[in-house]
Each structure stands twice: as C-alpha cells, then as structure tokens.
C-alpha cells in the first residue's frame, strides 16, 4: 500500500515560503567572507546539535555541549552519555552537509541514524542501523507506534514516497511530512526523535539552507510541550487503533505542518537577521538608512519626490500622508525648526513651499543643480 499523506495548504505554510524566500535572497545578495560563513555555520550546528539532543536527555547546557564537541570528552562521567550524543549529532550534521544530493531512501535513513547513535568514530559496529525487532511505546503510553513486524513495509512505503511523489512538493513541506511519518513509524529502538529532526534539517539544507544557518530545533526547545502536542495532534495513542479519535495511520497532517511551517518561517527570519547583522558589521554604510533620522511622514514624502529639490507645500503633505491641511502646516513648521527643510524662497515674507535643505540634499547624493551626484543612481 502506497504512503499518500493527507493535508491542506494553509496560510502558515504560504507564509513560511515567503520567509524562506526572503532569507535565501538575503543570503545570495549579501555574501559573507568564507571565514565568517564557516564560523556562523559551526555556531549554528553546535546549537542545533545541542537543542535536538536536549529535547530527550535535557542534561547539558549549551556551553557544555559546545565544550564537549570541542574537547571530544566529558569531564563529568555522569554526563559522558549526553556529551557523546551531542558529539554524534554534530557529526551527523557534517554527514548531512556531505549528503545533500543523496536520495531519501532507506539506506540513507539507516546511515544517518547509525551516525546519530554512534558518531563517525572508528570501530562503530555497523554503518547502517537495523530496524527494531520489538514493540516500543513512547512515554507512559502517550504514543504506541506500529508493531515491529510492520516496520519494514512502512519504511519501504515512506522511502518510495520520498524518492517519488514527495519530490514534487515544496521542499519545506516535504521536510515536514518526511519527519512526521518517520517518527510515526518509529523504526528504531532508540534515537528516532533525533533522526526525525535530522531528516528535516537535511531536507531543508538541500534547497533552502545550503549555508547551514537555519535553526528550527531551538524553537522546538522553546516550548517542548507544544512540540509533542503538535506531533500527536490529539490523535489516538495507538498507531492504527481508533477509540473515539482518529489515529496516526491515516491522519490529516495539516495541524502538524502548520506548526512545523510556522517554526521554519520564524527560523528563516532569524537566519536572515543573522546574515544582515554580520554583513552590517563589515559594511555599516551599505545598509545604513540615510534618512533614518527624519520623521516617518517626511520619509514617506521624500521617497515619493521626483527630485530632492522638488518643492513641498501643505496641500502636498496633506494629500500624500492623508492628514488635514492644518496638520500639514504644523508639520512643515516643525520640520523647518528642526533644520530638515527650508523655504524655496528664503526672502519671501510668507512661506508657501519648502524643500529639503541643501545639506540633506547633498547627504542624499544630489548636487546643487538637482542632478544625481557622481556614483548615485539617476533613477533610470
């Protein structure tokens, strides 16, 4: 039986696409030096490894996780297992970056899980994890996955979908479906949650996050109860048994995907801010807003001018900003007092029109004759 996920496209999913697109555009338009990009990527990977492993073990603080990755050991023996888990997850992220072109088949999923469970150190007993051969339950019967005998067929169906029909979906929706169905099947004895999140990271990095700066995991950690509630969606605790509620064997994935996409969009916005912040540190003048000092209303008017020396009167202000003429006159007087505008005819007894002061016009790149200064765009 083929795996055919059921869901509807909703506003949160579309908003995630906008946020991802904006972040990708910034990543393309504001290139980072290689050293800066590598530093940001490593910082993000440490945070992702910490947050994803913390969801289940809740042992190491972020600083301890970073130290464990750096030192390769744990000073406190009681924290050795947690330290190894975070190191293994960090190595799995490295494996993900090396495997962005591989197919989402069972071999890849089993290899990724093996890395998450044992890292990439020599002497690991196997390269590919084996599916469980016993039944498991999550928490105090919060969820009971399918019987172990069903796992091989369910994983084969998931792999057939992810290598076939699933590829037609937007990548971020594909990532959400893949992660959800994997953790629903729970094919391994342990490490399913970490592998579920790693699969989503792998899918997102293939298209939306080639720099490796997207961190959805920290948003899961922000409200873990919401994360688990989103996965369960109020369904029956048993995979394929129905009490008074539907079950996860044929669930409508819309609520989960809305939750997932909202967090992906939020993470994309954070990634965009990180790139902009790093770029701004090195090129402060490039991203500086030259008219940030001006009031919002005057900025709107300046943006609409055909030339910076164009006269402005109270009627213009009233029409362009949507206020009364009286309010417009009060603003013009205030702007004159602040030194932002000056009368077009300094010798007139009554001021009927103003324009930006010569100092502001020069600062914005317009010469005395009203033409764009050298190096400035002419508007054509």
Structure notes:
By secondary structure, this protein is mostly helical. It folds into 2 domains: 11-284, Fido-like domain (Fic-like fold, Orthogonal Bundle), CATH 1.10.3290; 296-363, Winged helix-like DNA-binding domain superfamily/Winged helix DNA-binding domain (Arc Repressor Mutant, subunit A). Helix content is 56%, strand content 2%. It is built from 16 helices and 2 strands. The chain has helices at residues 11-29, 34-57, 62-71, 80-98, 106-118, 151-162, 171-185, 192-207, 217-222, 224-232, 254-282, 284-287, 296-304, 314-321, 325-338, 358-363, and strands at residues 341-343, 354-356. A two-stranded antiparallel sheet has the order 1-2. The radius of gyration is 28 Å and the shape is elongated.
Strand order of the largest sheet: 1-2
**CATH level 3 topology of the largest domain:** Fic-like fold
Radius of gyration: 28 Å
What is the approximate shape?
Answer: elongated
| End-to-end separation | 60 Å
**What average pLDDT do the residues reach?**
88
CATH architecture of the largest domain: Orthogonal Bundle
Largest sheet data = 2 strands, antiparallel
CATH homology superfamily name of the largest domain: Fido-like domain
Q: Which stretches are poorly predicted, pLDDT < 50 over at least 5 residues? A: 368-380
Provide a count of the helices: 16
What percent of residues adopt helix (DSSP H or I)?
55-70%
Q: Order of helices and strands, N to C?
A: HHHHHHHHHHHHHHHEEH
For the secondary structure, the number of strands is 2
CATH class of the largest domain: Mainly Alpha
Structural class: mainly alpha
What number of domains?
A: 2
- Indicate the proportion of strand residues: under 5%
